[in-house]
Amino acid sequence: MRYLLLGFLLLCLGVGTNVSANTDKISVNRTLDALHHNASVADFQGYFDLYHDSAIFIGTDASEVWNKETFKAYAKPHFDKGTGWTYLPRNRHIYFSSDRNVAWFDELLDNKSLGETRGTGVLIKAGEDWKLTQYHLAIPIPNSLADSVAEQIKSMDKAKAPL
Fold it and tell me: What is the value of pTM for the model shown?
């Protein structure tokens, strides 16, 4: 009887861990979905409430490495006009630290003007909420085009260089 109770207790603990893990994954997904939704409808406050105060946003241009306040300053004029940005997630992977207080992700997104893009980032658990501490938006370049794109960037950089 003692072994039966011990086995039942261990089973319950294992189920509890899986429920907690699933809850975290659902919460992270909801946070990321809310991020994309709020950007799409130009909800400035809702969008930036999802970022931690120490957050960094890394954009597609090499010059775009912004803290939260700088990113807000960039986004505000767009959002004030009612034009945020729409990225539709279609493939997302989420991973967790062993203590389940940090999550990182990668996702493929579709955007009307850029086509396929990739978002990657890190979230931390803040109480019951998940907050973005880093978001990185990139345009994945097929390997067959990489040399050509790299050459275009080098040419552009040479043209910008002072004489």
Answer: 0.83
